[in-house]
């Protein structure tokens, strides 16, 4: 097991994040998911976050990431949701037709620490997302 560290600590913080499109609208395809992932990877370093695994279903995304103890995860999630919503609606105007009242993401999210299951199991689970619907 390889641990992360900084000047004063050693840590290993993995999180499984699930973000759902408002009212479970089915907007994700491979192209939109890929763009959402690019936005995540652009914002993440500012919050000491490293993407480990990404996948989508038509109405939600699964993200496995590593964080730093000083990471303000809720601020990162809000920044990501705001930026991705704005950019995806701008770059993919057809998405707006599937949304209700311009809302892209559901206000809520699911964030789970990845300590209960081996990471390989989580990675396999995320890799299998979307296989039934595409």
Structure description:
One of its GO terms (biological process) is DNA transposition. Residues 10-129 form the Transposase IS200-like domain. It comes from Lacrimispora celerecrescens. It is a single chain. The chain is α+β, with helices and mostly antiparallel strands and 134 residues long. The protein has one domain (9-127): 2-Layer Sandwich (Alpha-Beta Plaits), CATH 3.30.70. Helices cover 31% and strands 28% of the residues. It contains 3 helices and 6 strands. The chain has helices at residues 30-43, 73-91, 119-127; strands at 4-5, 10-11, 13-21, 50-57, 60-67, 105-113. The strands form 2 sheets. It has a 4-stranded antiparallel sheet with strand order 4-5-3-6, with helices on both faces. Helix 1 crosses helix 2. The longest helix has 19 residues, at 73-91. It starts with a strand and ends in a 7-residue tail after the last helix. The model has no long low-confidence stretch (mean pLDDT 92).
Key phrases:
3 helices; globular; alpha+beta; single chain; 134 residues; 4-stranded antiparallel sheet; two-stranded antiparallel sheet; 6 strands; 31% helix; Alpha-Beta Plaits
